[in-house]
């Protein structure tokens, strides 16, 4: 196995390249993904190497991007759409919610739509409005979509390829604030032979006092929290959900049965966020093991605020540690 | 008729007048020159069968056998004419009223009824007959058609000159649909990609209760050129003209000439659906006017005049229609309630933990009533 | 006070009429709401009486309806939009999520958007696909929108008028399956003088064994459950949430502190549905009072099924009673 | 230049050539006849000030004082020309690059910078200057403009003949935006309602890295007539022509003649935003070509030739520009971080239990660090 050190963005780029090499039906579509390589350069070099028919600069219309991707998939292609920023996915919401998600069901399994929609999401990058949101729950509520989010370069590399290989439509949420963080990636391993990363959570760090559940951008935060808590003598288990749909609470429940306490963290607003479902489910599954209610830390019920205030809005180290303290104090 | 706005009949391509006379059109007459009496009788037969089926389905809805039915009454010429111009490899993305097109694709019409009976959201395998499932969300499918056409291009199935290979895609939508963003984005994507697509708009003058004048202020065909998509207005109650303009548009698409917008100017002679009550919003006089321009009648008149429509043939088709009606009734009544557990099938193509768990719970829950526990 | 017996649909119709009479800036917009009176006849007679400029048959474009309503509101009008069916709101999702909800915040309170979006929602009417969905949580997660749902004619009458009078945008979800149910409505009372119905829950029936939380179409079910349970000697308290956003759990928590048990029911799929938030919050607020985890009953994680199966899909009397049994058995 | 497609310069209304010569146009020359030397100098001054401000903001972004900046470099004529044709009661819905228009509305340009510094999502009261907040979601605001114009109609502020009352609405958007469903729906609603709206498209030839040929295959102005909206293509680097065509469109709108689509053919001389790197997707030669057609230069040449642009006036404007630059720097640097609690303000106009509770929690949480507890 050859591991290479690379950024999160480069890991996705490499995964996309492998997918394009591996299957001639794979194609990328989006705004500015060609010559420019995408506003985050995630598709850098791919148009040059695979041509404008496979790495397509589309018109500026998200519904059109997803709608035509559906048609291409019906013709046997495997389109991977890039939505430029989280806040710009909503013009495509109808195509995703009423068409992409339901075609397999409506056709009683006769039609598959292997479409991946890549969405750079989350905050912390000092951007203007609509560029820092976390809308994942708005897709996870709809049956027929898989909703996933990698949290480090290795997973990003594996998950993007598994998502592209999946016969199901996959909403692929990329924590853009982590794009430039580096990690080791085994680029030789065949991700299609590897265990599925699209079905469930993984325990990233074991601990005994409290279970900390995160996904995407907050996983790195959770790991820092675990470090900080350790220095105060508290043992935090960190679970990376990886997938929002399916939501597989097996690993979380197993952990909570040991720790008796659980904190869920995400960047999206807490109200009706993914953490509500995790909390409700874990409480149901682990009722007699819980020493305290499941606590949630996330964004507030406000629009994503101005850049100068985003660090107060986002669930950072301090707010998560505070919740860990509170859940332990119960 | 108004002479301006979207309800004018100015500039319509016509080959057969409402009174059943053939008229010539320099561009389009050649497109129907090869249609001999047998072919013309075939179009007549198609329309008659489709209408019978439509009438039967309406009756079945009235009897409570269908939850809903959307009649295509009055639009048979637009649908059969365009549908018969298609090649087997062409692919169709219909809206929800294209029963006539379905018939021309070789789909057994009865298959359409699963959806309206509430036992299926689709009902057929689209790839069997190159006729996609009905789409109820107005305009959405026009983008699917555009994407499909982009796939056809990538497959090299355009402009090869091989008539068995070159492929066109057709999407059907209504006058109301032209207001939707998606339909306009389809025009953008089709134009920019020069996709082998025919955008076939049936302007039946009504979107439920709203006349086309609420959706546009100029003829809908004008929309195309503004996107770089050539367009044509055709008398949608003239099956020959519909055949001809579609044939031309398909040929352009297949040969690499790109998309065409066809506006077929027709009339929804029935209610929007069986839930609708047109008397609330339109006049009997208007309906009468259009009954005089019935698309089947004019072909009947013409073929009777030429002697092509013999009594024997009429009787034959009548019998066939009776049999279809009978078969439709039997088919629908036999369509049972699906197994409850099918509700959980095909949500995903691969296992999904939540669906699996909910299904397991539900089956156990249902089983718990087996012993007669149900309250 | 003069009460009149009328259907739910007529109660909204009457409320709309009062609002049109009361304020010349109020106007209705939507597909087929004029001569036809809407596909459910909720706007019956209003175009005739108030004219086509105030009761507007719009082009068939939901984004256009909401987008132009925003512009009209900026010019001082109070548009009430009708979306024909739940499943057709998604083309307007972008306008609602990125524009309607955020204008007040973005302008630091300088601009108000008093827009009401009426959405007939929910199932049980034997319809074809896209005509029976319950997407309320997809709006409630977004800050800046109020999301409400009346459950009976009197509330429908009051709430529609309070929604129109509100300076905030209101997503007004009408349980279409209840449109033809009748109730007494006090049409003389001034709803603008009455207590706010847009801020919180109401207890519809008191009980001591378990708290049953519902909203919109499931409130009637909950009342039937309470009856059935009573005949088995169980005392069920029924709380009608009325508002999904704000979610005011005060009444629910107060109840749960007494009953120790809670069941939440809604038609929307359980996964990431509104019940998750209710469960998470109630667990947090009432942790030491709960004898059992909060249970949820709702739709499954599938597209809304075919009409012939919808009664198995929907949370009906049996399934809710089963949950009541289970929560009591804990 | 291409001679077809959306990047052709065919059919552009022009009153001032790139080399600074006045040319006549039968329809539009009369529209600028009343502009005397002072008025022309005013346009020149506007453009120079806007450009200086734009340069200053770019520099401030480079220094880390702004998070982002979207330059209007090269589009000053389109913006100032159209903006100066407006009446005070007219209302503007801009996109995010209309700094030149903002200036003509009387908005102090520095106010634009709160958004780009990350201290505000808006920054000004739109009703003070009839200039709405910037909208970043491409195309969305065109529908707001259409609705606003429908409100103007309902207020009876169209076609009264009273020049202080009749009101037009203008919305600005880019070439890329024309692909969005919303922009096309705006055309539908505006046409059907005959709304007093000017849809002003600045075709600056690029949507970030994509040339207009990725969005359309015919000139964007062609889009209008397909919806029943008259349209005009204008040389967007010719401030006089932009003034003239906008004045005409505004007059049509105010008098009840309905909407107009204006395509101003111009060029984005700078990067898309300060985050962009145009060298990845376009040639230096192209940029050079357009630098030769700088919108300010041609007015400078013309006014210098006519003697209207005196050295004294130039010095005066230069000083004014310096002062604006200075004021901009000071303003931006003084824009402090907003109070954290403002994050919770104005989410709703009336109390909302969840916001109130979260705010209360947060304030208590913050207060807990006051004693130095923060880790
Ligand atoms: C997005 C969306 N909005 C609303 C509806 C409800 N609806 C169903 S059919 C229809 C009218 C369609 O009119 P048109 O496009 O002219 O087609 P026709 O029914 O006349 O064939 C409407 C508004 C829908 N199905 N989808
Ligand atoms: C709905 C949406 N999709 C994508 C973006 C990202 N984006 C910002 S500007 C831009 C290009 C806009 O091009 P154009 O309309 O020509 O305007 P210009 O920037 O040239 O003035 C894109 C794709 C966005 N802001 N909104
Ligand atoms: Mg129609
Ligand atoms: Mg541009």
TrEMBL record, chains A, C:
SMART domains tied to this protein: Transket_pyr
Molecular function (Gene Ontology), one example: magnesium ion binding
Domain (Transketolase-like pyrimidine-binding): residue spans on this chain: 6-181
The keyword S-adenosyl-L-methionine belongs to this UniProt entry's keyword annotation: no
This enzyme's EC code(s): 1.2.4.4
One BP term from GO: response to nutrient
Superkingdom classification of source: Bacteria
PANTHER family found in the cross-reference section: 2-OXOISOVALERATE DEHYDROGENASE SUBUNIT BETA, MITOCHONDRIAL, 2-OXOISOVALERATE DEHYDROGENASE SUBUNIT BETA-RELATED
Protein name: 3-methyl-2-oxobutanoate dehydrogenase (2-methylpropanoyl-transferring)
Keyword Oxidoreductase recorded: yes
Cofactor(s) the protein needs: thiamine diphosphate
Entry's transmembrane regions: none
Keyword terms: Oxidoreductase
Protein source organism: Cellulomonas triticagri
Automatic annotation (TrEMBL), chains B, D:
Annotated NCBIfam families: PDH_E1_alph_x (TIGR03181)
The protein, known as: Pyruvate dehydrogenase (Acetyl-transferring) E1 component subunit alpha
One Gene Ontology term from the biological process aspect of the record: branched-chain amino acid catabolic process
SUPFAM superfamilies xref list: Thiamin diphosphate-binding fold (THDP-binding)
Gene3D superfamilies: 3.40.50.970
A Gene Ontology molecular function term of the record: oxidoreductase activity, acting on the aldehyde or oxo group of donors, disulfide as acceptor
CDD domains named among the record's database cross-references: TPP_E1_PDC_ADC_BCADC (cd02000)
Organism per entry: Cellulomonas triticagri
Keywords: Oxidoreductase, Pyruvate, Thiamine pyrophosphate
Cofactor(s) the record lists: thiamine diphosphate
Cited Pfam families: E1_dh
Domain Dehydrogenase E1 component as annotated: residue spans: 47-323
